[in-house]
Design brief:
Structural class: mainly alpha
Radius of gyration: 25 Å
Oligomer: single chain
Distance between the termini: 44 Å
Order of helices and strands: HHHHHHHHEHHHEHEHEHHHEHHH
Number of helices: 19
Largest sheet: 5 strands, parallel
Strand order of the largest sheet: 2-1-3-4-5
Number of strands: 5
Strand content: under 5%
Helix content: 25-40%
């Protein structure tokens, strides 16, 4: 099962641990404090990566403590006032966890922050960060004044080690445990389409217009239903009284209907953590208004992505920038493909996970329309924190396995585009000397500091490229280039019954060049919190760069001449939010 390792420190200790979904062991060395295991159980996190240097618990503690310190400097009441009201910033459903953490750690934090300890030192004293050499914030210029915190730390441990239930934390099922199979959580007819927005619902694949009939869903071609039933959920239904034929037949049967599919990683899923969550000057009672929605979408925004974007989201913390996508371009050419999109991207996905797991969660079979699918794993096969790249022969096997599976479920005439791995050296070159949101108040944390801290803790999203060592960055890009050559060799050596395959280089450099021609600079295109993923502007420009290439390669069908008629008869075709009446009848 593929899981996300794109986790950062957030604004309250409870929030950080809630967001953690990382690969690793749930067991800890004997030297590790049992409180980290209690946090894992409190939020029912299946796996929590703990390295010898502290791992996720350490960066969580450090990031949160840093923000609490900054909030205390902004608030006239200091740290006492901040801890008194911080839980009120979160939705009520999450406040018991927050209150439990404040109860346990609050007294210790008050003493330590008032003594002007650095966040790194505080988390070391609280036993979350055993290795003092791993630090996010600048080391103190003056020698540290010794303080004995053993009593307050012991009290915190005593309170917290009573366990979640003793602290008044209710049992609950958290979002990350509901969609571990990458399928919709709410799906009454088990057709892998949903009428819910999040939890792998219609933000990820087109909305089901009848969740009680598994033969009705977006992209369905063959049907035994009468024409009054919108069997493919594209909003076109009913009969023309003049000809007696169904509108679906008259307006769509002569067009080339291609569904839009993405098989990808966190970049394709459009991973985005709201930067205001980490910026003390922007934290207020409205900051976390959509926290639950964002968590239920795995900190991803597929509805705004280059592959499957279709709407302008209004959630607090949403990515900012224009929305355009391959799906919208396909729909512009043929309104009959309305709602026929699937974004099967998973944070942390590598070629092995795609071949063995993710590709099998695509819903397509021979009763459905052909597709235009994009296979885009742009970095994780060279990003492992142990700098252990996927071997060339294994990569070949993985990709071939995934494509061979597609050949069993896609209809003839489909197209597959493979996007190569990115040259990720752009990350450090662009972001290294810029200020990270965790240091926004004082300008004292650079992305290079953030990268070094994540590497020291052995939890970096991409050790190879988020690295101060240029030789390691160059080696990582060299291996990525070899994997891209494997793609080309595989395409040359294999043919598939139901689709053709075309390779394209990752468009990131072209996106940067296009943005520069508009007066922008490269750092405008990188996510602020992780300093790793393409942001909303980059997602938009990716479509601007790639769509003409797809057209030139003959992967895009001709426009449907009936679009104007469809628009006049069916308007917005029901939009994207499912009609609660289900199957509207003429």
């Amino acid at each position: 099962m593929a899981t996300s390792n794109r986790t950062m420190g957030f604004n309250a200790l409870m929030l950080v641990f809630m967001l953690v979904q990382v690969a690793g062991s749930a067991s800890f060395p004997e030297t590790a404090w049992a409180g980290t295991e209690i946090v894992r159980r409190m939020f029912n996190i299946p796996q929590l990566h703990y390295s010898a240097n502290g791992g996720v618990p350490c960066i969580a503690c450090t990031g949160v403590t840093g923000i609490l310190e900054q909030l205390a400097q902004i608030d006239d009441g200091g740290i006492v006032a901040v801890l008194d009201k911080v839980c009120g910033y979160f939705p009520a459903v999450y406040q018991p966890e927050c209150a439990a953490l404040v109860k346990a750690f609050g007294p210790a934090l008050i003493v330590m922050i008032e003594n002007r300890e650095t966040p790194d030192q505080i988390c070391h004293d609280l036993l979350f960060c055993p290795n003092k050499t791993c630090h996010l914030y600048p080391l103190p210029k003056e020698p540290r004044v010794p303080h004995d915190y053993s009593s307050v730390v012991a009290k915190a441990r005593d309170i917290f080690e009573r366990g979640p239930r003793a602290l008044g934390v209710p049992e609950r099922v958290w979002p990350w445990n509901q969609v571990a199979d990458h399928k919709p959580f709410f799906d009454d007819d088990d057709d892998w389409f949903s009428q819910a927005e999040t939890l792998r619902g219609y933000d990820w694949r087109g909305a089901d217009c009848d969740d009680h009939d598994p033969t009705i869903y977006p992209g369905r071609r063959d049907t035994t239903h009468p024409p009054e039933i919108d069997h493919d959920c594209n909003g076109i239904y009913g009969v023309d009284n003049v000809t007696g034929k169904s509108w679906e037949e008259l307006l769509c049967s002569g067009s080339q209907h291609f569904g839009s599919i993405l098989l990808g990683d966190s970049a394709g899923a459009h991973f985005h953590v709201p930067p205001q969550w980490l910026n003390a000057s922007e934290v207020n009672a409205d900051t976390f208004r959509n926290l639950l929605d964002i968590l239920e979408n795995e900190l991803c925004w597929p509805e705004l992505s280059a592959a499957s974007g279709f709407t302008n989201n209004t959630w607090m913390g949403r990515p900012v920038g224009p929305v355009d996508s391959g799906y919208l371009r396909m729909r512009q050419d043929n309104l009959c493909v309305h709602r026929d999109y699937q974004n099967q991207a998973v944070s942390g996905a590598r070629s092995g996970a795609m071949a063995n797991d993710i590709v099998k969660t695509l819903k397509r079979n021979h009763t459905d329309h052909p597709v235009f699918a994009v296979y885009a794993l742009i970095g994780n096969d060279v990003c492992d924190w142990r700098a252990s790249y996927t071997p060339l022969d294994e990569f070949y096997k993985n990709v071939l396995t995934a494509l061979s599976y597609l050949d069993t479920v896609l209809n003839p005439g489909s197209h597959v585009a493979i996007l190569g791995l990115v040259d990720g050296r752009i990350l450090y070159d662009t972001m290294g000397d810029r200020v990270h949101p965790l240091g926004a108040l004082h300008g004292n944390v650079l992305y290079s500091d953030f990268y070094d801290m994540m590497n020291c803790l052995q939890i970096s999203p991409c050790f190879g490229w988020m690295n101060t060592d240029a030789a390691i960055r160059n080696e990582t890009s060299a291996w990525a280039a070899q994997l891209n050559n494997v793609y080309k060799q595989l395409i040359a050596n294999n043919t598939f019954r139901n689709f053709d395959v075309t390779y394209f280089d990752c468009p990131m450099q072209e996106v940067i060049d296009l943005w520069a021609s508009m007066g922008g600079v490269a750092h405008d295109l990188i996510e602020l919190v992780d300093g790793f993923h393409p942001n909303q502007i980059a997602e938009w420009l990716t479509t601007e760069v790639m769509w003409p290439k797809y057209v030139k390669a003959g992967l895009v069908p001709a426009a449907n001449p009936n679009n104007a008629k469809i628009l006049s008869l069916f308007g917005d075709q029901g939009g994207y939010v499912p009609d609660q009446r289900n199957n509207r009848r003429a």
